[in-house]
Amino acid sequence: MEKVINCFCKRPDAVARLVCFPWAGGGSIYYARWGQLFNSSVEVYSVKLPGRETRVQEPFAEDIQQIVDEVISVLLPKLKEKPFVFFGHSFGALTCFATAEHLKKKHGLEPVHLFVSGTSAPHSKARQTSMKRSELSDEEFLKWMTAVGGTPSEILKNTEVVKLFLPVLKADMRVVEKYSYPAPESNVLTCPVTCFDGKEDTPHDLEAWKDLTSGEFTIQMLPGAHFYLKDPSNETIIIDNITKHIETAEMDYLK
C-alpha cells in the first residue's frame, strides 16, 4: 500500500479515514502532513501518483481510469473497514469523484462525504470549453502557471527544477483533458458533497456538482486565488469543516 498511499500518522484505531487526491503536478506530502493536523479520530491517506516522488521511475498515468483502478485495488479492503471521506483540489477533485463513482457502481461503497475544490463538475459545459493547456509551449505554460499562482517564483525561475516539474504537470493536464463525463440522467451518489473554491480564482461551475448526488450539497467560498487552500487560515477552515462533517457522519453511521 505504501507505493500508492502516503500516511504520516498511522492511526489504526481511528474511527474514520480521509483520503486526499493531489492536484495536477502535485505529490503526496502536502496532504500527508494533514495527518498531524487532524485529531486522533481521523487517519489521513494521501494518494501518490506514478511518475513522481518514490514512483519517479514509473510512467505517468494515461487516463483517469488508470488512477481509479490503482487506488481502488490498493484501498478497497481498507475502505470496507470503517467510514471514509474523500477530498481533492482541482485535478484531485475530478480523480476523487471518479473514484467515488466507480466505488459506488462496482462495489456498493461510497464516501460518507465528498469534498471537492477548485474545479467545475466533470460534466459541466464549462470544462468542455476550456483550452488544452497541455499543448502549450513550455514558455506559455510557465506564463499560465505564474498567473495561476501557488508555485514559488524561485522554483519557476530555476530551469533545472522546471525541467523536472513541467513533464509531471503536463502529464496530469493531459489526463484531465481526456476525461469526459456525460451529464447524469440521475444522481450517481447519495453522500453529501461540499465544494470549496477561491473567491479570486477563475470562476468554476460549482453548482453542477449538485447534479451528481441526492445528498446534501453546500458551497463555501474562501479568500484567495486557485491555491487559496495553501493559506494557513483557509487550510484551518477546510480541516475544521471536514472534521465537523466526519463527526456528524460517524454519529449517523453508528445509529
From TrEMBL:
It comes from the Eukaryota. Pfam families: Thioesterase. This is oleoyl-[acyl-carrier-protein] hydrolase. Gene3D superfamilies: alpha/beta hydrolase (3.40.50.1820). Belongs to the thioesterase family. Residues 17-244 form the Thioesterase domain. It comes from Huso huso (Beluga). Transmembrane segments: none annotated. Its EC number is 3.1.2.14.
